[in-house]
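Translate structure to sequence.
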C-alpha cells in the first residue's frame, strides 16, 4: 500500500512547513523504516509538498493517520496495491475516490486534485471521469484546430 500525506499547513511559513515535514519524515523513518518520496500535491489550485510512502503495511496506517492528525491534516490518501484509493479523514471516516491513474498533464489539471510524482501526473478517479476529461480535451483541441484553420482561410483572402 502507498500513503500520501503532508505536515504542511497553508497558513504557515515555508520554513515552518519544511520543519514540520522534516520532523514527519524522520519520525516515519525511525518508527516504520519508510522513506517519503516528494510529491507535489494540488488541491483546488493550491499546491503543497506532500510525501508518498510505499510498502506501507495495513497495521501502520493507524500510526500515519495519527501523525497526520497531530499535524492538523484533513485527510491522508491511501492507495491500495490494486490501485484503489481512499481518503482517510481525521475523524477516521473513509471515502472511496476511485483508482490511481497516471495521466497526461492536460488531463490531470482538469481535476480538483492531482499529484505529481517524479514528473508524472496522477489522479485518483473513476475511469468514467478520466474518459470525460479526455473527451473535454479532445473537443477543445478540435475547436482550436478549427479556429486556426478559419483564421488561416481569412488571412488567405
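Result:
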Amino acid at each position: 500500500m502507498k500513503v500520501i500525506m503532508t505536515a504542511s499547513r497553508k497558513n504557515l511559513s515555508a520554513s515552518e512547513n519544511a520543519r514540520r515535514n522534516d520532523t514527519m519524515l524522520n519520525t516515519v523513518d525511525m518508527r516504520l523504516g519508510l522513506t517519503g518520496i516528494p510529491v507535489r500535491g494540488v488541491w483546488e489550485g493550491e499546491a503543497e509538498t506532500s510525501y508518498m510512502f510505499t510498502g506501507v503495511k495495513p497495521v501502520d496506517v493507524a500510526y500515519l493517520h495519527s501523525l497526520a492528525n497531530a499535524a492538523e491534516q484533513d485527510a491522508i490518501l491511501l492507495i491500495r496495491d490494486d490501485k484503489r484509493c481512499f481518503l482517510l479523514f481525521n475523524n477516521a471516516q473513509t471515502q472511496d475516490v476511485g483508482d490511481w491513474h497516471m495521466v497526461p498533464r492536460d488531463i490531470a489539471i482538469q481535476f480538483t486534485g492531482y499529484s505529481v510524482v517524479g514528473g508524472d501526473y496522477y489522479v485518483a478517479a473513476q475511469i468514467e471521469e478520466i474518459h470525460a476529461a479526455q473527451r473535454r480535451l479532445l473537443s477543445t483541441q478540435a475547436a482550436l484546430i478549427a479556429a486556426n484553420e478559419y483564421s488561416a482561410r481569412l488571412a488567405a483572402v
